[in-house]
Automatic annotation (TrEMBL), chain A:
Pfam families: DHO_dh, Fer4_21. Signal peptide: none annotated. It comes from the Bacteria. Belongs to the dihydropyrimidine dehydrogenase family. Involved in pyrimidine base degradation. Catalyzes physiologically the reduction of uracil to 5,6-dihydrouracil (DHU) by using NADH as a specific cosubstrate. It also catalyzes the reverse reaction and the reduction of thymine to 5,6-dihydrothymine (DHT). It comes from Devosia nitrariae. Residues 338-370, 373-403 form the 4Fe-4S ferredoxin-type domain. This is dihydrouracil dehydrogenase (NAD(+)). The lineage of its organism: Bacteria, Pseudomonadati, Pseudomonadota, Alphaproteobacteria, Hyphomicrobiales. Its EC number is 1.3.1.1. PANTHER family: DIHYDROPYRIMIDINE DEHYDROGENASE [NADP(+)]. Keywords: Iron, Iron-sulfur, Metal-binding, Oxidoreductase. Heterotetramer of 2 PreA and 2 PreT subunits. It catalyses: 5,6-dihydrothymine + NAD(+) = thymine + NADH + H(+); 5,6-dihydrouracil + NAD(+) = uracil + NADH + H(+). The keyword Iron applies.
């Protein structure tokens, strides 16, 4: 079995699967159950400063969207940071860390954007023996209205300033958690690095309203007929998170900065994808809140089996392996030509490829042949867009096949060139970097 | 065990009183909202959906399923009823595994088609339970049309004519409207008086008057109707029952399966209904299955269906055959009735001859076997009573019509089981009644559509 041990920004854990700072990590009872189930680490639900704790709404905190059979696809929440007393949390963190020395115990913190507040709380957290801290610059609801959470994360200068305070007042590794509710996630990541952060984690939740009740016209989740935007997470946000992780992983200014990937991770495969895009660890919440802590067994065995199959002895061997393949559109090879192929033996003749192509794309798929239902790609119309592959309900029925260099692309009538060529040198590009002919 | 459970002969009360309700409960309990949504989510919303093309009434199945999936069951019901006003009954009795569900691409993909019939029932039940009407009558045309037969063909025809603004009188020989829906279908397929509820739902549009006890050829004549109405539609079904052509057919204990089914459907108290201890049903169609299964459910100890051809030739669908088997009915093939054995004038058994196909022709092999029984049901098909169709051209013993349902006599249309080329399905009767109504409308209104 592959070695899943991770060393992340100076924090060791037996596997890369951490529970994200969220309701599942709010108290020792839940954390104990999680660690027993096999989670490699936890990020304790965000602590606030000393004093009367925050209060939560007493109505619904969560909203959701579902797929077929009420399969949860996306969850949103308007819960705030921990509503338990600081001292109680600190006491429990200390107990847990003593009892589970091999697991990562990271403490999420959110206090006002003032040096004194951070200076006050950091020693208290350090005293628990926790392995590190995560700065919650991400929560988009409630706390942001009070100048915390995403209100900080959206201003790179504040991010840098707070990170700097933390590095000044604690020896613990600092993980800066980033909000996706921002135009360019690289900016706060660069600021965190400038402030000296040891790592970033992302994404926090996305501003969202999950639904509108069409009887009451209240947004969901509804509190006495009113709603507010909450933080969106779960499988639906994974593509957004993967993209943001990749942006930081490949940004020359933050290249090599440890990343803890978060956002809709539900299976070992999701986790491996985040790791391939540069995440040293991953954090999970919605999947655990949907199915319970036991899912980590599937994640551990799935990742391990895949690593064995691929011959990776440790996670370091594949973390970041996909980063080099993320590029800008302008560098994509325009001489790479594909055509869709429909496997007639697998085709069940639903015709969705045809109607998708006919109504909304390139009129490149037949609907009949000799008077019978028959769906076949017309190479002289197919642009290789992949829409038919995506709408086909049958696994592997439609595939994209490369037109090898030297063959004629039936659509353009041109021979497919063997060499790579992209937009930067394309004749249609007014900015093309080809030498103008001499006058 | 009830006292008369094993009583020889034909006797009522073979079950404990409480067992009847369970035995005759809904064959397919309705889907609840969640089940309907899960099932609807399985539909791929195919292009030019094969299920729709397989439906004799061309219901836009993919659309109504999508409407169910999006929590719009009323929209789904309207989609169904706009093509098939008897969509509620068809959802219950259609052999979907030979029609829409056979064509479903999931049948090809995984052998598990979307449960189209059950979804159709889900949507139509909701609309009918709320008495939601989707059609309003066009301005009165002043035209009056007689529809003979208040079965599926007649009701579908009457409804579409009413929608067009015509006034319709529906005549039926029986004490209740509904035709085979009321009298000819196993009770576990249409429980809780659904056939009558559907008649009420269909006629609620207005402009339809039903006159019962009016039998064509007895107290009503075709010529009379033709003279009193602007048009006539015949949806009179099949009145005759084919004979066994076996010796002893008149013995006490030999009975038409259709009568047994009708009696059972009309019974107030099933425990008063007599059934044999050992029952043999002769035939291979839906009626044979319905009679055999219900005999078993009434407490018959042994029920055997004997069919003179093989499994492949049975008109009853695979689903129906499996249903019968699951209820404990034995189905035997390649046996033709030869002689009903009697004791004291009552059925004591039946002698059957082994058969086989020789050069495509069914032949008796000469040797026989005997099954002891005290009741024999005849379910070897029904035939049209030509005396009802005065002056109409027949083909193969049924009324000849063109594609629009026009008979050989001007002003008379026909549809359903009584016409040539039907497949004896409720849904086909509905399609023919509906289409004849369109033809009648076009004819009466001088070719103007609307």
């Amino acid at each position: 079995m592959a070695d899943l041990t991770t060393h992340f920004a100076g924090i060791k854990s037996p596997n890369p699967f951490w529970l994200a700072s969220a309701p599942p990590t709010d108290k020792a009872y839940n954390v104990e159950r999680a660690l027993k189930a096999g989670w490699g680490g936890v990020v304790w639900k965000t602590l606030g400063e000393e004093g009367p704790p925050v209060v939560n709404v007493n109505g619904p905190r969560y909203g959701a969207i579902w797929g077929a059979d009420r399969r949860l696809l996306g969850l949103n929440n308007i819960e705030l940071i921990t509503d338990r007393a600081l001292q109680q949390n600190l006491r429990e963190i200390k107990e847990i860390k003593m009892k589970w020395p091999d697991r990562a115990v990271v403490v999420s913190i959110m206090v006002p954007c003032e040096e004194e507040s951070w200076k006050a709380i950091l020693p208290l957290v350090e005293e628990t023996g926790a392995d590190g801290i995560e700065l919650n610059f991400g929560c988009p609801h409630g706390m942001s209205e009070r100048g915390m959470g995403s209100a900080v994360g959206q201003v790179p200068e504040y991010v840098e300033m707070v990170v700097r305070w933390c590095k000044q007042y604690t020896r613990m590794p600092v993980i800066t958690k980033l909000t996706p509710n921002i135009t360019d996630v690289r900016k706060p990541a660069r600021a965190a690095k400038a402030g000296g952060t040891d790592a970033v984690s992302l994404i926090n939740t996305i501003n969202s309203i999950t639904a509108v009740n069409l009887d009451t016209f209240s947004p969901e989740p509804s509190i006495d007929g009113k709603g507010t935007h909450g933080g969106y997470c779960g499988p639906a946000v994974k593509p957004i998170a993967l993209s943001m992780v990749s942006e930081i992983a490949r940004d020359p200014e933050t290249y090599g900065l440890p990343i803890s990937g978060i956002g809709g991770i539900s299976t070992w495969r999701d986790a491996a994808e985040f790791m391939a895009l540069g995440s040293g660890t991953v954090q999970v919440c919605t999947a655990a809140m949907t199915y319970g802590f036991k899912i980590v067994e599937e994640m551990i065995t799935g990742l391990s089996n895949w690593m064995d199959e691929k011959g990776y002895a440790s996670v370091d061997e594949f973390v970041g392996r996909a980063v080099r393949n993320v590029t800008d559109w302008q560098y994509l090879n325009l001489n790479y030509v594909t055509k869709a192929r429909i496997d007639q033996d697998l085709c069940i003749k639903c015709g969705r490829c045809h109607i998708a192509c006919e109504d909304t794309s390139h009129q490149a798929i037949t609907k009949d042949k000799d008077g019978k239902r028959h769906f076949e790609v017309m190479d002289d119309e197919c642009v290789g867009c992949n829409l038919c592959v995506n709408v086909c309900p049958v696994d592997d029925c439609i595939t994209m096949v490369e037109v090898a260099p030297g063959l004629v692309d039936q659509r353009t009538g041109q021979v497919v060139p063997g060499e790579y060529a992209n937009w930067t040198t394309h004749p249609n590009n007014p900015m093309a970097k080809v030498a103008e002919p001499a006058e | 065990m009830a006292g008369s459970a094993l009583k020889e002969g034909i006797a009522p009360g073979r079950l404990e009183p409480g067992d009847y309700a369970a035995n005759f409960a809904d064959l397919h309990p309705p889907l609840d909202r969640h089940e309907a949504h899960v099932e609807a989510d399985r539909c791929y919303f195919c292009y030019d959906a094969p299920c729709m093309n397989a439906c004799p009434t061309s219901i836009d199945i993919a659309m109504f399923i999508r409407q169910i999936a999006t929590d719009n069951p009323m929209g789904a019901a309207e989609t169904i009823f706009s093509q098939n006003i008897l969509g509620g009954m068809c959802a219950r009795v259609c052999p979907t595994e030979q029609l829409c569900e056979e064509a479903c691409v999931r049948e090809e993909a995984e052998g598990k088609p979307v449960k189209i019939g059950q979804l159709q029932r889900y949507a139509t039940d909701i609309a009918m339970q709320e008495s939601r009407q989707f059609f309003t009558r066009a301005a009165p045309t002043g035209k009056r049309i007689a529809v003979v037969g208040a079965g599926p063909a007649g009701l579908a025809c009457a409804h579409r004519l009413a929608v067009k603004g015509h006034d319709v009188t529906v005549l039926d020989a029986r004490p209740k409207a509904g035709g085979l829906n009321e009298y000819g279908i196993a009770s576990y397929k249409t429980v809780d008086g659904f056939a009558q509820a559907e008649v009420e739902y269909v006629t609620a549009i207005g402009g339809i008057t039903i006159e019962l006890g009016q039998r064509l050829g007895a107290n009503v004549s075709l010529d009379d109707l033709k003279s009193r109405y602007d048009a006539v539609f015949l949806g009179i079904g099949l009145g005759g029952v084919n004979a066994l052509k076996a010796e002893g057919e008149d013995a006490d204990g030999v009975r038409d399966a259709v009568d047994f089914i009708a009696e059972l459907r009309q019974a107030e108290d099933l425990s008063t209904l007599a059934v044999g201890r050992r029952v043999v049903v002769i035939g291979g169609g839906m009626t044979a299955i319905d009679a055999a299964v219900q005999a078993k459910l009434l407490g018959a100890e042994e029920v055997t269906i004997c069919y003179r051809r093989g499994k492949q030739e049975m008109n009853a669908s695979g689903f129906e055959q499996d249903l019968a088997a699951s209820k404990g009915v034995t189905i035997r093939h390649w046996l033709a009735p030869k002689r009903v054995l009697t004791r004291d004038g009552k059925v004591a058994g039946i002698e059957l001859e082994y058969t086989q196909l020789v050069d495509g022709r069914l032949v008796g092999l000469g040797h026989t076997m005997t099954i002891a029984c005290d009741q024999v049901f005849k379910a070897i098909g029904q035939s049209f009573e030509p005396r009802w169709a005065e002056g109409l051209a027949l083909v193969g013993g049924r009324i000849d019509t063109d594609a629009e349902g026009r008979t050989s006599r001007q002003g008379i249309w026909a549809g359903g089981d009584c016409v040539v080329g039907g497949d004896d399905l409720t849904v086909t009767a509905v399609a023919q009644g509906r289409d004849a109504a369109e033809s009648i409308h076009t004819s009466l209104m001088g070719g103007t559509h609307g």
